[in-house]
Write a structure and sequence with these properties.
The chain is mainly α and 220 residues long. 76% of the residues lie in helices and 0% in strands. It has 13 helices and no strands. The protein is elongated, with a radius of gyration of 19 Å. The relative contact order is 0.13. The model has no long low-confidence stretch (mean pLDDT 88).
């Protein structure tokens, strides 16, 4: 299955195998078997501006197992990475940004306690959101409260950095300022995952055509 994914995505087989294994071994919600996981990974690549190699690199630092512990599903991971990819943030850098963003949502910086309280949030509110509804529920809650407090796309970034710190702020700012884009990735990944078998059939047919063409040339 990893070989099929690597061929479809034009990526290194070892890296794709490691990413696929990480997704399944982590026990992250949304994965029942290798075929389903590979379909989800391939769909993530199709939903964002990235290559399969970028996705494999994002999975390389144990990020999936970490964010799974805070309530994220594989679809959450894919939607966030696809959003980052559209913003030219890919590979290991995207994986790190997602991991630090999720950890900060679950355990905000102590300096952000007052700002969160002013918006009606406790230090554990967003972590509970992720536990019950994944990344999207937490981001929906956070952005809605920021907007009610008067923050817009232009001013959210600075406030998020104040609340969650300099490491997590930039990644959270991308997800918050482009919440509609993040939301659009979920149905795109769902549809793409269902089409993985078709993608492999198309790729495999193309490979067979190329081999047949080579055979004909060798005969001539």
């Amino acid at each position: 299955i990893a070989a099929e994914g690597a061929k479809v995505g034009g990526a290194d087989l070892v890296d794709v195998t490691n990413a696929l294994t990480a997704a399944v071994a982590s026990g992250i919600p949304g994965v029942k078997n290798y075929s389903q996981a590979m379909g989800m990974l391939n769909a993530t690549v199709g939903a964002g501006d990235m290559k399969m190699q970028d996705l494999a690199d994002a999975f390389g630092g144990g990020m999936v197992a970490v964010v799974k512990g805070y309530g994220l599903s594989l679809k959450d991971v894919g939607a966030a990475l696809a959003t980052f990819g559209d913003d030219n943030i890919r590979g290991a850098a995207a994986g790190t940004k997602l991991r630090t963003a999720v950890q900060a949502l679950a355990v905000p910086a102590a300096a952000g306690k007052k700002a969160l309280a002013d918006m009606g949030l406790s230090m554990t509110s967003l972590g509970k959101d992720m536990e019950s509804g994944g990344l999207l529920k937490a981001m929906d809650d956070l952005v809605g409260r920021l907007q009610k407090a008067g923050y817009t796309g232009k001013t959210m970034g600075a406030e998020l950095t104040t609340i969650f710190g300099k490491k997590a702020g930039p990644g959270l700012a991308v997800l918050a300022e482009q919440l509609d884009r993040l939301k659009s990735k979920y149905p795109a990944i769902t549809k793409g995952a269902q089409d993985f078998g078709k993608a492999w059939t198309t790729t495999n047919s193309g490979l067979k055509q190329q081999l047949d063409a080579l055979d004909r040339k060798s005969v001539v």
